[in-house]
């Protein structure tokens, strides 16, 4: 199927309506019929573009993740030092995710049940984030902000940083373990950056 501009508009409408329903009712209670009805279309329209509500849910999550990444990267690119870029990376991500937390809280139980199924969604996103952190660290090395000792760890260190932040995000959204994360994360990033400096 060759996608036309009209197809892209319809797919975008499907994702917007589905996102609202997933936020309100969760994945399990939302049906293809619900999504079609909220769009004022028949179910056949949905099935023309997507095989199932799970496929629509995946597309909603992928779109949200890409929007989050684009906002984070935009803020990182505005900063002029590696330290500020790394701080912006972490803080912007938390701020943006907090604003979008409703969808994740509503479906958190469902996500926990299907973590293995959703793993493929996070692989490309993790790679994007890891590459961005690697760029920041390389920038810091070029500008003599960070110790040359980290040069030998550039294959692993970006993944460690991304994984650490991902763990905090997971605890924040799934377990509600940390409150005032934004304020506390600033201090944590400062401590981490001290370890990267000369």
Automatic annotation (TrEMBL):
Q: Tell me where in this chain the HTH tetR-type domain is found.
A: 8-68
Xref: InterPro entries: Homeodomain-like_sf, HTH-type_Tx_Regulator, HTH_TetR
Under what name is this protein listed?
DNA-binding transcriptional regulator, AcrR family
UniProt cross-references to SUPFAM superfamilies, sorted A to Z = Homeodomain-like (SSF46689)
Q: Which residues cross the membrane?
A: none
Organism name: Sediminibacterium ginsengisoli
DNA bind region: 31-50
User: Which top-rank group of organisms is this from?
Assistant: Bacteria
Q: Name one GO molecular function term.
A: DNA binding
UniProt keywords, alphabetically:
DNA-binding
